[in-house]
Design brief:
Length: 361
């Protein structure tokens, strides 16, 4: 068996030790006589798995007690609707910062449930930057402010968190959750599709400040009401059991092999620096994102020639560097270097870029 370096934006690479452990436990989990995939979600064995997963997430992210952790389905895209249905409330309006396709989609979806104010956008420069805080004015009657903290497609991230005063901040952390410490108390709600940095596809994490739940719009379907899932401990219906188990293994890896989020951040910053340092000195490749807003999870770059980009992607794949093609809407290349991408993978990519540059100059 030989594993490639997989730079996919999501679903994405998982720690090899986690995969091996899952493989070892696949047919029989502990002495339960069954696979986690076969267990009743109401069984004591699975309840213990889910409880342990939540405890680990709370510990790793230092989640305060007045926040609930939910294990949902439907991806981040379902949160684009669930957030406004639950939080838009009587004010009927919310502020959105648009810094990419996902936050734009979130804003569009929210318009179905109330008034959406786009308080800032970086669309004018194809989302290559993050608007400055001094240029953003929030509406006093906004029920919440929504942003996407790391823009997976464009390779940018917020270098700051806006001060929204008493207005709850809602953030899509799909492609940066667990990549570095965050102060959860600064948010009203955090959501993330798990398939980038946490687990296989099928699980959506929601971390919500308790007092924000229970005010859903009257027509909100039961399954889309945060209060339903809070009341039922994410077990109103069958949860994504296998993904929760995998999430727990990844958290165990993060805590005990990596050493927590501070250590993870250090590793991620170092990996990203290797790539950006090379890009800053390259004559062939350019990074479109402005330096202040560069993502440490998704690194985008181009040659400026779409045919050459294509050749690079194909050649890289032949060299065991897979899924390096940029998002279909922007072209070029994108290296997603999430937590589980080893530094050796980034070094192999840079080495290959260097050789490609030499043979194409
Ligand atoms: C991938 C991604 C999404 C979409 O997630 P789904 O789980 O496919 O719905 C939304 N926001 C961000 C920031 C993403 O990276």
């Amino acid at each position: 068996m030989s594993r490639v370096y997989n730079f996919s934006a999501g679903p994405s690479t998982l720690p090899e030790s986690v995969l091996r452990r899952a493989a070892a436990e696949l047919v029989e989990y502990g002495s339960s006589g069954q696979s986690v995939m076969e267990m009743s979600h109401r069984s004591p064995e699975f309840e213990a798995i889910a409880a342990e997963c939540e405890e680990r997430l709370r510990r790793v992210m230092s989640i305060p007690d007045n926040y609930k952790v939910l294990f949902l389905q439907g991806g981040a895209s379902t949160q684009f609707a669930m957030v406004p249905m639950n939080l838009m409330g009587e004010n009927g309006c919310a502020d959105y910062i648009v810094t990419g396709q996902f936050s734009e989609k979130a804003a569009q979806e929210a318009q179905k449930f109330g008034t959406v104010n786009i308080v800032a956008s970086s669309k004018d420069k194809n989302f290559t930057y993050i608007p400055e805080p001094k240029n953003i004015q929030f509406n006093a009657n906004a029920s919440y402010v929504h942003l996407c903290q790391n823009n997976t497609i464009y390779g940018t991230r917020f270098p700051y968190l806006p001060d929204t005063g008493n207005i709850p901040l809602v953030a899509d952390l799909s492609s940066c959750i667990l990549s570095e410490p965050v102060d959860v108390s600064k948010y009203g709600l955090i959501y993330a599709g798990a398939q980038k940095n946490v687990a296989p596809a099928g699980l959506t994490l929601v971390i919500i400040r308790e007092d924000l739940a229970g005010k859903a719009l009257p027509y909100t379907p039961t399954m889309l009401n945060y209060a339903t899932h809070i009341k039922n401990n994410s077990m109103y219906n069958t949860p994504p059991c296998w993904c929760i188990y995998m999430c727990s293994l990844v958290l165990d890896w993060l805590e005990n092999e990596i050493g927590g989020l501070e250590a993870m951040k250090e590793i991620n910053v170092r990996k990203a620096k290797i790539l950006y340092d090379y890009l800053d000195h390259s004559k062939l490749f350019k990074a479109p994102a402005v330096p202040e807003a560069r993502s440490i999870m998704n690194v985008t770059f181009v040659t400026g020639d779409p045919d050459l980009d294509k050749e690079f992607v194909a050649e890289a794949a032949k060299n065991g560097l897979r899924n390096i093609k940029g998002h279909r809407s922007v072209g070029g290349m994108r290296a997603s270097i999430y937590n589980a991408m080893p530094q050796a993978g980034v070094e192999a990519l840079v080495k290959f870029m260097h050789e490609f540059e030499k043979s194409h100059s």
